[in-house]
Fold this protein.
Amino acid sequence: MNGARWFRMTSRWLIGASLAAALAMMGCASGGSDTTVAPPTQTGDGNDFTPQPLGTLSGTDIVTNGEESDDADVDLYSVTVTQTTNLFASLSWTGNADLGMALSNSSGITVRNVDTGSTPEQCILGGVPPGTYTVRISSRTATATAYTLTIGAR
């Protein structure tokens, strides 16, 4: 390995290590409160932490109803896709509430967040590969709001 190449590789490594160390120190700096916050309590619907499976996507839309009890409630649903397709999701409700939804891929990475403040919230993910996708429903409204979630291939 020539000297110039070794210098570039070493410089990149040192810059990366320095950045990682600086970020780690920022996250562990003193001065904040050491109190631990308890996780939110689960509502009675059973899908706040573990997605409720809705089945496998087919030629017919999957429709389910739920309720966001308040602005701390989160509902999770999962759907399995067996072949590459366009994945459609629509969230609708009545009233003045502000609900939103996010879709995550099989790796748990959020690939779309939809929160326009109006009903319905809709999106189409084009050409998604086979896997299990999660839909997260949340509310910015402190009152209970019933909703309908529709998932299908488009």
Notes: The longest helix spans residues 3-27. The radius of gyration is 21 Å.
